[in-house]
UniProtKB/TrEMBL annotation:
The keyword Signal does not apply. The keyword DNA repair applies. GO terms for biological process: DNA recombination; DNA repair. It is found in: Cytoplasm. It comes from Kangsaoukella pontilimi. This is Holliday junction branch migration complex subunit RuvA. GO terms for cellular component: cytoplasm; Holliday junction helicase complex; Holliday junction resolvase complex. Residues 73-92, 108-127 form the Helix-hairpin-helix DNA-binding motif class domain. Keywords: Cytoplasm, DNA damage, DNA recombination, DNA repair, DNA-binding. Residues 170-221 are annotated as: Domain III. Pfam families: HHH_5, RuvA_C, RuvA_N. NCBIfam families: ruvA (TIGR00084). The lineage of its organism: Bacteria, Pseudomonadati, Pseudomonadota, Alphaproteobacteria, Rhodobacterales. One of its GO terms (molecular function) is four-way junction DNA binding.
Amino acid sequence: MIGRLAGRVEYRGSDHVLIDVRGVGYVVHVSERTLAALPPVGQAAALYTDLLVREDLLQLFGFPTLAEKEWHRLLMGVQGIGAKASMAILGTLGPDGVARAIALGDWASIKAAPGVGPKIAQRVVNELKGKAPAMMGMGAGGAASANTSEVIEDAGDGVVAPVPQMPASNGAEAEAMSALSNLGYAPADAARAVAEAARALDGAETPQLIREALRRLAPKG
């Protein structure tokens, strides 16, 4: 199993890149969001990968964080969701957006991905709603970038170059989830409140998210 690749971008397609790893070229399929974040041809990059194996097909799919890779695997486990649909969902929402949509039961956001109909979107929310709290709470370990502290040595000219950093998932939501769990809130309730807070306060830091989530969890009336 190929779990991670680090090398130089040799080619950029519409839905894939060719990464040269010391003379061996790997075609890695990526979402639009990941493709936009990758460096131009000739520069170093690293991706976590998942290998799809079929009788007549071997395909590598690439992700900038472990959290996104894990969401891909979860999405692929939903009936009616193939690799193309999973990459479309992640490309449209990103891993944080997928977690929020599922925690909120917002299947309309899932349906916004190209090629995903309402029935499939509802199935994604229904089948994965129990996974959202754990995914939102993965924290820095699950959100770690594939490019962390990586260097690539070019076999041809001996040049050692640092790999450009790509953005990791939002750790503030994971920290807020952890804080609410420590306060005794149920994972599903905490996930929903944090997702609502994150949607209302885009880009908020952990303390703001916690305060807003607690406000939403407070008894009404």
